[in-house]
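In the design runs reported in the main text, the only information available to the sequence generator was the tokenized backbone. The following block is the verbatim input for one such run; it is reproduced so that readers can re-run the procedure and compare outputs position by position.
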């Protein structure tokens, strides 16, 4: 079981602004901020951290699981609004399985950030 993840970034201030907007639809907020670190989470516990330190990551894939397809869509819109680049619009990815509904946005460093709902579509 994972407790937290740290993503090394070039500029923690730039990345913090991006993630504050992009992760808001997931209920994530900036919970801890230090000169070269920022911790995001929901329910008061930071579990997604940014660290301004080498080596800087690019092409890392982080997927946030959600329980509603609307959140996937809201994340995608928020990520683009925050300056991210589209890396796959909201949609079903049947290559994984019939209920895999995800969206992908590249962050300021080129990391592939995803939200995915794996529950069946609600009727």
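Verbatim output:
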């Amino acid at each position: 079981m994972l407790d937290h993840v740290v993503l090394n970034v070039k500029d923690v201030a730039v990345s913090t602004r991006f993630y504050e907007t992009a992760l808001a639809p997931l209920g994530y907020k900036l919970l801890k901020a230090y000169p070269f670190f920022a911790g995001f989470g929901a329910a008061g516990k930071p579990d997604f951290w940014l660290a301004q330190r080498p080596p800087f990551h690019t092409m890392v894939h982080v997927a946030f699981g959600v329980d509603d397809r609307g959140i996937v869509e809201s994340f995608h819109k928020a990520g683009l609004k925050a300056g991210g680049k589209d890396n796959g619009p909201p949609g079903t990815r049947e290559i994984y399985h019939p209920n895999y509904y995800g969206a992908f946005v590249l962050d300021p460093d080129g990391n592939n950030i995803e939200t995915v709902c794996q529950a069946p579509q609600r009727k």
